[in-house]
Structures are given as C-alpha cells and as structure tokens.
Write a structure and sequence with these properties.
The structure holds two protein chains of two kinds. Chain A is mostly beta strands. Chain A contains no helices and ten strands. Chain A is globular. Chain B is mostly beta strands. Chain B has no helices and eleven strands. Chain B has strands at 4-7, 10-13, 19-25, 33-38, 45-49, 53-54, 62-67, 70-75, 85-90, 97-98, 102-106. In chain B, strands 2, 4, 5, 6, 9, 10 and 11 form a seven-stranded mixed β-sheet that branches. In chain B, strands 1-3-8-7 form a four-stranded antiparallel β-sheet, with no helix packed on it. In chain B, strand 5 (45-49) and strand 6 (53-54) form a beta hairpin. The chains are: A mainly beta, B mainly beta.
C-alpha cells in the first residue's frame, strides 16, 4: 500500500522560505519510472502543479514558479523535500505530494492528505 | 502552457441522474488526460486516466471519453457519494496543468 504524508510549518511570514517534506512508504524513489510531485490548492480554488522529481533525479518545475522552487529527494529516508523562497500571502494553500509511476497509470496516484500553509505576518 | 477549460463550473443534479462533465484543451493532448475527484477536506483521487481507463477500484458508473482537445467524464447514475468537485489534468506537455474544476452538487 502506497502512502504519502506532507509535513512542514503551518504558518510562515512573507519573504520567508517554506520547506515541506513528503514522507512516503510502499514504494522506492530508486525504482525506475517512479516520481513524486507537489501540487497546491489555494482555499476554494483549483489545483496547481508545482514540481516533480523522478527516480533518476530528473526534476521538472512549473515555469511560473521555477525561480522560487527546489525539489530534492532522499532515497534512504523515503522523503522528497520542496523549498519555496520568498513566500507571499498569495502562496497560502494546501500543499499536496503525490506518487507517479511510469509502469503503472503514470498519473498522480495516490496523493497525501495535504498540509495547509498560511502566509501572514 | 496548455489551458484546460472545464464546463460547466457547477452542475446541479439529483441522485440517480446522469452527469456529463466537459474538459477542453487549448492544444492537442492526445489521450494524456486524467480526471480526479475531490470531496471537501480530502485530497484528490484519481478516477480516470489516459482519457478512458478507470483507475483501480473506481466504479463502472464512471467513464471517460475523448481525445485530442475534447474530453468528457460521465457518471451514469449519480450516487450520494459522487457529489464532489472534479478536475481534469493533462500530461502531454510540460508544465502539467489542471482544469478549473466542475462542482457536482445536489439539486
């Protein structure tokens, strides 16, 4: 059974850097074809893809946020970390991580429960 | 970026009725389109991928169709647990993009 769980601060101040950790089980990020992505959702709004990292360390970013995002993996800890710099109130959202596997359906499946991050002074 | 436009924004139906949701892509995405269901306070769940393949454990009342730029999600007979928000997503081109969502509400 694949599970993912996001963790990190619930409140950050404007201009600060956000660091979120996705801790997963049931798969390995050293397995060919596996990836973990980050998606966010502002309150009451639609989903927005942020970043994705693959087993071979290939990394993809949303162009609109690329300058602020860094995604890394720690295969030994079964974790993926997303950092977002220069946080702004508009970045207030629930942040999700999700599994993707090329040998499977190759879509985001399943997702973590999400973590709400509020940006406010 | 590929823009996915979902319509209608809200669909008001009664249990037992048929629901048809639309997702239109600004460019050809082939069959690289998925549908997700999101209930209040929950994470999205994959329903349909590659335009028409049901994900594991998804009931047969959910079906997807389309290719290229026009896609549909059909719920043949709405169950009480189907009232939720539905999103489409494409993975044909980077960046990955989602539609704005369709809310299926109880009439």
């Amino acid at each position: 059974q694949i599970t993912l769980k996001e963790s990190g601060p619930t409140l950050v101040k404007p201009t600060q850097t956000l660091t979120l950790t996705c801790t997963f089980s049931g798969f390995s990020l050293s397995t060919s074809g596996v990836g973990v992505g980050w998606i966010r959702q502002p309150p009451g709004k639609a989903l927005e893809w942020l970043a994705l990292i693959y087993w071979d360390d290939d990394k993809r970013y949303s162009p609109s946020l690329k300058s602020r995002l860094t995604i890394t993996k720690d295969t030994s800890k079964n974790q993926v970390v997303l950092t977002m710099t220069n946080m702004d109130p508009v970045d207030t959202a629930t942040y999700y991580c999700a599994h993707m596997e090329e040998s499977g359906d190759n879509w985001f499946d399943p997702w973590g429960q999400g973590t709400l991050v509020t940006v406010s002074s | 970026d590929i823009v996915l436009t979902q319509s209608p924004a809200t669909l008001s139906l009664s249990p037992g009725e048929r629901a048809t949701l639309s997702c239109r892509a600004s460019q050809n995405v082939g069959s690289y389109l998925a549908w997700y269901q999101q209930k209040p306070g929950q994470a999205p769940r994959l329903l349909i991928y590659d335009a028409s393949t049901r994900a594991t454990g998804i009931p047969a009342r959910f079906s997807g169709s389309g290719s290229g730029t026009d896609f549909s999600l059909t719920i043949s007979s709405l169950e009480p647990e189907d009232f939720a928000v539905y999103y489409c997503q494409q993975r044909s081109n980077w960046p990955l993009t989602f539609g704005g969502g369709t809310k299926v509400e109880i009439k």
